[in-house]
Amino acid sequence: MSVEQVPPSLRELLADIFEISPEQVTAELSMEQVDSWDSFRHLQAILALEGEYGVQFDPQRIPELTSVALLLSELKKKGATL
Predict the structure, then answer these.
(1) How far apart are CA 20 and CA 18, in angstroms?
(2) pLDDT (tens digit per residue) in 9-55
């Protein structure tokens, strides 16, 4: 999945939180590849996504959502309009 397949709103939001360029936000991007993607920013991202897309993530799933692809998939499952 290329950068074009990540919705611009999601790309911008994650780039802002993780302090990286939007072009770096691809579906393949994961927690292991971004130094600033620590547990604190992970929670910030989850809260921002919930607010932006009007969804509620299952607290037990949150620690598993460690890549853009997984976040995107979970948003789609929740019926978020991307």
Answers:
(1) 6
(2) 999 999 999 999 999 999 999 999 999 999 999 999 999 999 999 99
Q: Hey, what are 5's tokens? A: 């397949």
Number of domains the chain is built from: 1
Residue 3 has pLDDT above 70, yes or no: no
Strand partners, 67: 30
What's the CATH code of the domain at 29? 1.10.1200.10
Is residue 30 situated within a structural domain? yes
CA dist., res. 52 & res. 72, Å (int): 13
Q: What is the pTM of this model?
A: 0.91
Residue 15 in contact with residue 22, Cβ under 8 Å? yes
Q: What ranges in 1-82 are assigned the alpha helix state H? A: 8-18, 39-53, 68-77
